[in-house]
Amino acid sequence: MEEKNNFVHGVAYGKLYLAGEYAILEDYASALITSVPKKITVFVEESDKTTIFDTINKTSVGLFEENSNFTLVQQFIQFLTEYTNSDKTFALTIYNELHSDDKKYGLGSSGAVLVAISRAILSFENITYNDLTIFKLVALFNIKHNLSGSMGDVAASINDGITFYQKFNAEFVNEMIHQDKTVKEIINTNWDGLLIEKIHPKADLSILARWTGEAVDTKEHVKLWKQHKDNYKEEFRVFVETSNTLVKTLKKNLNETDASNALNTINKLRENLLYLESFSKIPMETSTMKSYIESHTAGKQSGSGSGDFVLGFEKNNDKYQLQLNLERL
Fold first, then answer.
1. CA 245, CA 269: separation in Å to the nearest integer?
2. How far apart are CA 306 and CA 129, in angstroms?
3. Kind of pairing between the strands at 90-96 and 51-54
4. Do the Cβ atoms of 12 and 6 come closer than 8 Å?
5. What's the rounded Cα separation, in Å, for the pair 216 and 303?
6. Integer angstrom CA distances of residue 93 from 40, 59, 88, 132, 245
7. Terminal CA-to-CA distance of the chain, rounded, Å?
C-alpha cells in the first residue's frame, strides 16, 4: 500500500492451484497455490459520497444503488464498516487485470477483489492490519453470505508467489457467528486449523501455465463433489488423504534444488485427480488438456478441471519460474 496524491491503494493477485484441488474443500486439508503476474489494484480517495467504479463494467455506482454487477462489492464495503466503525465516504476504483476483452480466465477474481478492497479501505482508515486480518475479513464475509468454497483463492491472492494453505475448521468459525460475536472478536480469535505460509521455492522448475480457452463454472463441479460424498465415503477419504500427503511432499520438493522429485509428485497429484474423476464423474481433463499435459515431463489441471488452466512442468537447470500464457490452447 502506498499513499500518493491523497489516494491510498491495495493490491491482490490472481491465482492458480498447483496442488490440492477438491480436497481443499475439507476442513484441515491443504493446498499449494501460486499467484500470477496479473493483479487487482483498488484506489480509494475522499469523496462527498461513497461510489464504486471498476474497469470491467466501466460504470460508477453509489453504495446503495441497485446494480447486480456491484452487489458483492457493495455488501462487502458495508460489512467492513462493522470492523472499521467508520462513516467516512470515499470514491473507490477497481482496476482488474484478471479478465480481458470479456474473457474469464479463471484466475480467481472475486476473492482478489475483496482482498484489494480490504487493504485499500483499512489503509484509508489508518487501521493497522496484517495478511491474516485481511484473509479472515474476506473469509468471514463469504461465510456469512453463504458463498461456499475453500477460501484458497483468498489466501493465495494475498501473497506474491507460492502459498501453502491449510483450511480452517468451518464449524469453529460458524460457532462464533452463532454466538453473535462481533466481527472484531472473530477476526481477533485464532481460527482452528488455519495456516497460511509463503513458500520460497529453490527447485529448478518451470511452470508453463496455459489458458485452455474454455471457461469452467467451479460451483457446478463443487456441487457434484458434495452430491457424491455420501455415496463414495471410502473413495473420498482415500482421495483426500492422498492429496494432503502429496501437497506436503510437493511443498518439501519445492525446497530441493533439483526438481526431479517435484516432477514425480506432480504426476502423482494428476493420477489422484483422475482417481477422483473415476468414481465422482467430475470431469477433469479435456482431450486438449490431456495432450498438453502429456507433452511435458509432468503436468496437471489447475483448479476444478475441464477448462480454465492446464499446467506443464519442466526441469530448467536454472531456477524456479512461472510462465503464464493467455493465448487459447
1. 10
2. 38
3. parallel
4. no
5. 9
6. 10, 10, 16, 24, 42
7. 36
pLDDT at site 231: 87
Which amino acid does the sequence have at 102?
A: D
CA 326 to chain centre: 18
Provide the phi-psi class of 6: left if phi over 0, else alpha when psi is between -120 and 50, else beta: left
164 touches 32 (CB < 8 A): yes
Let me know: does 322 contact 210? Beta carbons within 8 Å. Answer: no
pLDDT tens column, 83-140: 999 999 999 999 999 877 667 778 878 899 999 999 999 999 999 999 999 999 999 9
pLDDT tens-place string over residues 234-281: 999 999 999 999 999 999 999 999 999 999 999 999 999 999 999 998
Q: Please, which residues have CB within 8 angstroms of residue 204's CB and are 6 or more apart in sequence?
A: 257, 258, 259, 315, 316, 317, 318, 319, 320
> What grid cell was written down for 305?
478441471
- State which amino acid sits at residue 185: E
Rounded CA gap, 13 and 107, in Å?
9
CA distances from 315 to 206, 251, 261, 269, 320 (A): 6, 16, 10, 17, 9
pLDDT score for 5: 52
Judged against a pLDDT cut of 50, whether residue 1 lies above it is answered with no
